[in-house]
Each structure stands twice: as C-alpha cells, then as structure tokens.
Amino acid sequence: EAQVTQNPRYLITVTGKKLTVTCSQNMNHEYMSWYRQDPGLGLRQIYYSMNVEVTDKGDVPEGYKVSRKEKRNFPLILESPSPNQTSLYFCASSPSLADTDTQYFGPGTRLTVL
Amino acid sequence: QKEVEQDPGPLSVPEGAIVSLNCTYSNSAFQYFMWYRQYSRKGPELLMYTYSSGNKEDGRFTAQVDKSSKYISLFIRDSQPSDSATYLCAMSDILGANNLFFGTGTRLTVIP
Fold it and tell me: What is the C-alpha to C-alpha distance for residues A29 and A36, in angstroms, rounded to an integer?
C-alpha cells in the first residue's frame, strides 16, 4: 500500500530536549516536505526537499532542521524544542516538486512541548 | 490580510443536503486551486484540483473557481455522514508543491 508514515504519532516532551520525528514514504517520490498545522493558522510549510541531499526552507523553518540522506526518509529534527513548537506536524510527499496534484500526507504527529 | 481566508465553521447539515464550502483569496496571480479533506486524526487528502477558472465535477463533488471575484467553492451534493471532516482549500500562483497557501479549514458535520 502506497503510504507516508510518521513516528511517533504522539509525543510529549520538555523544553530543550532534542527530538526527531521520522517520516518515510514507499512511493519512490522525489519531493518531500514538512508542515505544521495550528488552529487559526492552517498548514504552514517548514522545510521541503526536492531530492536526496537537496533541502530548502519553507515559510516557518526557525527552530527546525531536516536531512535527506535517503530518498524514502525525511526526518524532522528539533534540536531544542520550545513550547511554541507545540503543534500538529505532517509530512508529505509527491513524485516531484511540480506534482502539486499528487501530494500525499502522512497521518500526523501531535507534539506537545512543556 | 491573509492570502487565503476560509470560514472555520463549524457547519452542520442534515444528511442529503447540498453543502457549499468557500474560500476567498487576495493574490490575483493564484491559478492552481485545490480542496483537501481531512478526517479527524488523519492527514489531508486531495479531493479536487482545478486550474484557472471554471468548474470541475467528480461524482458528488463540484469545485468552482471565480477568478474575477477571487472566490472558490466546493459543493457537495447528497451529503453523507462519511463526508464529515474538515475541508481545506489551497492555492498557488506557480506550479510547485512548495508554494501552496492553505486556508484554515472548515469543519463539516453531516447529521444522519
């Protein structure tokens, strides 16, 4: 089954404790991205990657890092989480950057930073 | 002013009703328009995709774009309880998944 998986699905942590949210897709997609979803603000892009070793900032990259060492994986790293990073996070993938109409989203990771 | 405005609802309708969901936008350069459906505790899934103005129909769903008014709509005919979800509009001016502007979503409940 074609899918985007994220782990963990739920995470409660404390300020400053480094964490990684994993994202994996099994569709051989070149393009992957991370979003955060907040009430009243909608989905905002954090980082995206057009291919292996190619990443770029989205609209709200501050406080986040990403890496793309393999095509299927695109982890999101919070080096020193803060309470304002409490949010619902989604990973997404599509065959290429241009394939706006075939973007698949993962199930989401709900992060709470105390 | 936000690039994309969407009434958050919530919107409750009886089963079988026609539902109208809407978004307005400020950037006249937007030409790619999408509607996503997001069930509770799930990621968004693309429902409809249209380019430029006009209508597009897919089963019970019709997407409508009025560029002159900067207004897009999603109509759901014969609404079903399974349509209960949050509906997000998204749009962009150039082709590229890194360039989407999302609405905040409208929560819809279809009551049996």
Answer: 21
DSSP of A1-58, one letter per residue?
A: ---EEEE-SEEEE-TT--EEEEEEESS--SEEEEEEEETTTEEEEEEEEEETTEEEE-
Q: Chain B: nearest CA to A114, how far in angstroms?
A: 22
The token duo for B106 is 């409208």
Instruction: Show which of residues 89-108 on chain A sit within 8 Å of chain B, judged by CB atoms.
Output: 90, 92, 94, 97-108
Query: Structure tokens of A27?
Result: 């569709």
Among all residues of chain A, which has the CA nearest to that of B93? A100
The pLDDT score that the predictor gives to residue B1 is 65
Chain B hits for A90, CB-CB cut-off 8 Å, are 43-44
In B18-70 the beta strands, taken as DSSP E runs, fall at 19-25, 32-38, 45-51, 54-58, 61-66
Helix (H) and strand (E) counts in chain B? 0, 11
Low-confidence ranges of chain B (pLDDT < 70): 1
Neighboring chain B residues of A39 at a CB cutoff of 8 Å: 104
Question: Would you write out chain A's pLDDT as a tens digit for each of its 114 residues?
Answer: 889 999 999 999 999 999 999 999 999 999 999 999 999 898 999 999 999 999 999 999 999 999 999 999 999 999 999 999 999 999 999 998 888 778 899 999 999 999
